[in-house]
Amino acid sequence: MSAGPATTSARSVEEHRGRVEQLLRPLAARPVEDVDMSEALGRRLAEDVRAPVDLPVFRNSGMDGYAVRAESVAVTPVTLPLAGVVAAGQPGQAPLPPGAAMKVMTGAPIPPGADCVVPVEDTQVGDGTVTVERGRSAGDFVREAGTDVRTGDLLMAAGTLLAPRHIAALAAVGLATLPVFRRVRAAVLTTGDELVPAGTRLRPGQIYNSNGIALGAALAANGSEVVAVEHSSDDPAEFRRALAHATDAADVVFTSGGVSKGDFEVVKDVLAELGGEFGSVAVQPGGPQGLSVVDGSPVLSFPGNPVSTMVSFEIFARPILRELAGLPPVPKSDVPLRDSIKSPPGRRQFLRGRLEGDGVALASGPGSHLIAAMAQADVLIEIPAEVTELAAGAIVKVWEL
């Protein structure tokens, strides 16, 4: 798929999100890879998995106690001779003599001939004997082989998003590797002469590059594999080199900065020459946006102000990336405002908010540079484009961050 010519007309949020989804949806056809069980958490199972063994694998004790025949303890108290001990991990093939008891640990094999287990707390031990003070019925505290799952049964269906409980079951049947869909591989490319890495001493006019780290974290949190986080100056040749490396390594590339109407918009200048599409979306923050396809890889270009970058990711990229990863949709809800607000006409505004009780309060002002204030937010407050003012108590839609 290729992007069309550059345009300056403002799209709606829905239109632009639809274009993003159109670019990224082909990434659903990703190859399958086998991963070690220790790396399977959060991955989506690519094939049905059937149990290669029974669970339980063998008949075993559900308690520390004494394996007996139920008929031997039908009348209690009764004293029985001890015929041995079976610990967990032992073969436990010796049969139980009639009228005797055999001590068993939790998980130990039930000796042939026994049909129930008397818990240790219901007994008194003597010299080579055990006195049973409470009788048991056949089957009590006996885990029969295959009562959890049988060999050949469907254990996990293709498409399952693997949580710890799934991995526990898959490991219990002895699987060492699992077939999963490869994660979407994403690269981040930030731009700007003014940006320097954390740990560097700032010179006049410089700021720290938060967008590279932040976008990488957002991608990883939403099921993507971050294969590169790079930075380019505003030099077109340097940006082209960094872009080529990113598109070679990744399924999708995210750029930050260089998309507006200034004099040094390196992202727009370079990508427009390659058929990239740049223009305005009727949203605040995050109005300037770009979409391109370079060497077969979609490139999503966000504005460089930190809040604009993060809000752009949340509303345009996060929903489709979560779908591709098999994650549940971004949670949204309707709640009352704690504060009155004003909003610019013609633009859908996403304010940063904090849930308080059954309502939502503003966590910061609308400025697209207020990244520290955004850290205090746990939701985005969505204000429709046609709304310019809302009183406290008005119902608004919020997106969970």
Strand order of the largest sheet: 7-4-6-5-9-8
Measured between the Cα atoms of the first and last residue, the distance is: 31 Å
Total number of strands: 28
Q: Main beta sheet, described?
A: 6 strands, mixed
**β-strand amount:** 25-35%
Q: What general outline do the C-alpha atoms trace?
A: elongated
Give the helix tally.
Answer: 7
As a percent range, the share of helical residues equals: 10-25%
Mean pLDDT: 94
Helix/strand-derived category reads alpha+beta
**C-alpha-based Rg, rounded:** 31 Å
- Runs in which pLDDT lies below 50 for 5 or more consecutive residues are 1-8
What does this entry look like structurally?
- The chain is an alpha+beta fold and 401 residues long.
- The chain starts with 12 loop residues before the first helix and ends with a strand.
- The chain has a six-stranded mixed beta sheet with strand order 7-4-6-5-9-8, with no helix packed on it.
- The chain has helices spanning 13-24, 164-172, 211-221, 236-249, 266-273, 306-325, 371-374; strands spanning 32-36, 49-50, 60-61, 65-68, 78-86, 101-104, 116-119, 123-125, 129-132, 142-143, 154-156, 177-181, 185-191, 195-196, 207-208, 225-232, 252-256, 277-280, 283-284, 288-294, 297-302, 332-336, 341-342, 348-356, 359-362, 379-383, 389-390, 395-400.
- The longest helix is centred in the C-terminal third of the chain and has 20 residues, at 306-325.
- Helices cover 19% and strands 31% of the residues.
- Helix 1 (13-24) packs across helix 6 (306-325) and helix 3 (211-221) packs parallel to helix 6 (306-325).
